[in-house]
Amino acid sequence: MPTLGYIVESSTTPSASRFTDTVLLGRAVARGYGTLRISVLGGTVLALGRYHLAPAQASDVTLHRRLTGGRAAVSGDGFVQVSLTLPHRSALVSDEPLALAPEQILNRAVRGLLGGLDAVGVSSVYPGRDTITVARRTIAVLGLEIDARGATLVEASIALEHDQSMLPHLLERVDVDGVIGAAMVGPDDATSLVRELRRRPSIEEVATSIRRGYESRLGIGFVEEDALPSTPEVDDGFVHSRAPRPDLDRHGSIPTMLGLIESHARLAADGTLDEVMLAGDLLAPSGTIDRLESALRGCAAVRARLEAVIADVVRPPNDFILGVGPLGAIAEVIARGVG
Predict the structure, then answer these.
(1) Which of 26, 58, 99, 107 has the smallest CB count inside 10 Å?
(2) Structural domains of the chain, ranges and CATH numbers in brackets
């Protein structure tokens, strides 16, 4: 029977949550099993994916950059945050780290969440990509990260009493320059537990239901653990680690299955790529993106050469990028930007 630690935090902060998940990833590798952590981020939170550009200021909204990739989402009060840390990406179903193909990772990880939502009284589905839906309305947004050790983090922001239709309004307050690429979400595109149940379940009820979902659908055994000690709020630079840069003056953007992918580049005197920064709604191991951006430096800015470099770096099963369709989309967005 697979085992997970189990932590419930009624309130935390984005900075503390990132710190906790980083510690739990290391703990998962060291002891061979992970942790299911369920929490609430205090305040109004705009949660960027790992690869979005950050706006210069966040006004009265807390700007958060998740450790995981995926789309930008609303979090904070009115949402339940789920963090599933694992020693490797297949740990829920196998001792073999590469037993699951890249496109199967979220599919397996969210089965417990689907069971949890069912246990609380909401019938939901995982249609693929990075959302969970109820009658085609988004109720949860997902993220994925795999670090250099293979340790895996799956995140979900579940709408409790607010929902993702808040996103356009939040972006108007936070991102006046429009640097965050995000699809429009209307009231009919999103839902919440309160909307579906006609009542507000407590965080304890939601957490218990999610735990039961993992027990019933994946046969998980749980060990209750104490929350990590609180840490002082420190600006570690991670939130603004990707931000608009005037020197990267060649910009391309194309729609993908998840939303958008962008390239921000600078050309050298000989016309090759001097530097490239990818941004947007990407689901990929962070090391894959780092290696790809590094490999693109010095590459001729022509599509055939770009495609060859990308194919050489992004080699499943260890290196992959989900949600962009054929990898030629990455070459296309760079070529458009420099063209």
Answers:
(1) 107
(2) 3-224 (3.30.930.10), 250-338 (3.30.390.50)
